[in-house]
Write a structure and sequence with these properties.
Arc Repressor Mutant, subunit A, 2 domains, about 80% helix
C-alpha cells in the first residue's frame, strides 16, 4: 500500500502516513466492509487518499502563490482576494465528479488521458466533464444566466 501511495506522492513519509490513515479508517468501518471486497476497498481508499492529499497540498501552495503574485503586481489586494474567493466558491459548488475531473486537470495538470486511466473512464467522458465544469464556472463567476 505504501508503494501505491508513493507512486502518487513521491514521498515515503507522506505515503506511510496516508496508508496508516487508510488502515485506521478501515478498522473503524470494519463491520460495514464485506470480507471479499477488502482488497479492492484498500487499494481504492489508498489511491483516493493519495489524490486528495495532493489536491489539498496543491491548492494550498497555489493559493499562497496566487496571493504573492497579486501583491507583487501592486493589484488591489481586496479585489484580488474577493475574486479568488469567488473562484474557489464556484469550484466548490461543482458536482462532485465534475469537480474531481476539473481539479485533476487544472490543479494537478493531468492530461485527459491520464485522468481517464486513473478514474477508469473514457477520455471522451473526461472531455465532457471538463466542458461542463468550464461552462458552470463561467456562469457562476461572471453571473451569466
Amino acid at each position: 500500500m505504501v508503494y501505491l501511495a508513493n507512486t502518487y506522492l513521491f514521498n515515503k513519509e507522506d505515503a506511510e502516513e496516508i496508508v496508516q490513515d487508510v488502515f485506521i479508517k478501515i478498522w473503524n468501518k470494519r463491520n460495514e466492509i464485506q470480507d471479499f471486497a477488502i482488497k479492492t476497498y484498500l487499494f481504492t481508499s489508498t489511491k483516493n487518499a493519495s489524490i486528495n492529499f495532493l489536491r489539498r497540498k496543491k491548492i494550498d501552495s497555489q493559493s499562497l502563490e496566487s496571493l504573492s503574485k497579486f501583491k507583487s503586481q501592486n493589484a488591489k489586494p481586496l479585489e484580488s482576494l474577493e475574486f479568488a474567493q469567488k473562484i474557489k466558491k464556484a469550484i466548490d459548488q461543482l458536482p462532485p465528479k465534475t469537480k474531481r475531473v476539473f481539479l485533476m486537470s487544472r490543479y494537478f495538470e493531468f492530461t485527459y488521458k491520464e485522468i481517464a486511466q486513473i478514474l477508469s473512464l473514457s477520455p471522451k467522458t473526461i472531455e465532457n466533464q471538463m466542458g461542463t465544469a468550464l461552462r458552470l464556472l463561467k456562469k457562476k463567476i461572471f453571473n451569466e444566466n
